Amino acid sequence: MKALVKQKAEPGLWLMDVPEPEYGDGDVLIKVLRTGICGTDLHIRSWDGWARQAVTTPRVLGHEFVGEVAAVGAAVQDVAIGDLVSGEGHLVCGKCRNCLAGRRHLCRSTVGLGVGRDGAFAQYVSLPAANVWVHRAEVNLDVAAIFDPFGNAVHTALSFPLVGEDVLITGAGPIGIMAAAVARHAGARNVVITDVSPHRLALARKAGATLALDVSSADIGIADAQRQLGLKEGFDVGLEMSGRPEAMRDMVDNMTHGGRIAMLGLPAEEFAVDWSKIVTSMITVKGIYGREMFETWYAMTVLLEGGLDLTPVITGSYGYEDFDAAFDEASSARSGKIILDWSA
């Protein structure tokens, strides 16, 4: 089969012929239809410091996907050949304290699909049946392909109650844009999102952001946005999606007393924040990683069934043979989510 492989410990990816993945009694073999390109995949392609630490070559990349079940192991009961499925890309041990308590997203032994084991940038992928999500309701294939990052957005946005709240999102990457759409759909009063890319801010407006601020411009800042919206005490909920020190500091400065911050953005290095302000304003900061298995997946499906539209965040689609062009677009500041089509 064809697959996108990190064949060598150097920048680049290779489209290669590799054996179809094996599957055991508790596994599912999936014919891949569409995949989404993630920031993780971009890091591995460029072979930066994180990728050199996290990935052993050769490795088939990819963890955002939708496909059709091609075969199931003898012990699989709830997944059938022909089912349309996506996959939870965090494979957990099932035996640690958190796993046994039903908190699988907190497993300390998590292995990432497409990072620690061969992934879904291929014509077929194998997963444990426990990691397979069957789409019982009708869903757009491109949207189904990005359930993984959609789950990050939902997990972050729904960490705190949103009905009637004023929400600040720092970082208008694809997950930040999806989080803005989720927040509005879930009942937030105002959703303000910041970034330095006019293209991505325009996508955020289409997704439902009340205000989309270019913080590289001196024309209007977050405090100005508060005045424009008539906010007197600051934002109730913050969703930090950028991993940028200045974004986190701006967020802390603009939260109301007792405000709550969910932090998904992963910083490149340590940075300082004003902890005295966090303490004296009684601000809650919660770290977010991945999705709650599988509560977030239920929430995603219900949000889509309730009319949430994610299509504005998808800005490009390529056949897998054109992966270099797809990755180039995904790495620009002009794109939303980019899809690779494997159905051919």
From TrEMBL:
Cofactor note: Binds 2 Zn(2+) ions per subunit.
Binding of Zn(2+) 1, residues: 38, 63-64
UniProt domain Alcohol dehydrogenase-like N-terminal: residue ranges: 24-133
Record's keyword annotation contains Endoplasmic reticulum: no
Keywords: Cytoplasm, Metal-binding, NAD, Oxidoreductase, Zinc
Gene3D superfamilies hit by this protein: Medium-chain alcohol dehydrogenases, catalytic domain, NAD(P)-binding Rossmann-like Domain
Gene Ontology molecular functions: L-threonine 3-dehydrogenase activity; zinc ion binding
Catalytic activity: 2-deoxy-scyllo-inosamine + NADP(+) = 3-amino-2,3-dideoxy-scyllo-inosose + NADPH + H(+); L-threonine + NAD(+) = (2S)-2-amino-3-oxobutanoate + NADH + H(+); 2-deoxy-scyllo-inosamine + NAD(+) = 3-amino-2,3-dideoxy-scyllo-inosose + NADH + H(+)
GO biological process, one term: L-threonine catabolic process to glycine
PROSITE patterns to which the protein is assigned, alphabetical: ADH_ZINC
Residue sites binding Zn(2+) 2 per the record: 93, 96, 99, 107
Residue numbers annotated as active site: 40 (charge relay system), 43 (charge relay system)
Entry superkingdom: Bacteria
Cofactor(s), by name: Zn(2+)
GO cellular component: cytoplasm
InterPro entries documented for this protein: ADH-like_C (IPR013149), ADH-like_N (IPR013154), ADH_Zn_CS (IPR002328), GroES-like_sf (IPR011032), L-Threonine_3-DHase (IPR004627), NAD(P)-bd_dom_sf (IPR036291), Zn_alcohol_dh (IPR050129)
Identification of the protein by name: L-threonine 3-dehydrogenase
Species this chain originates from: Streptomyces scopuliridis RB72
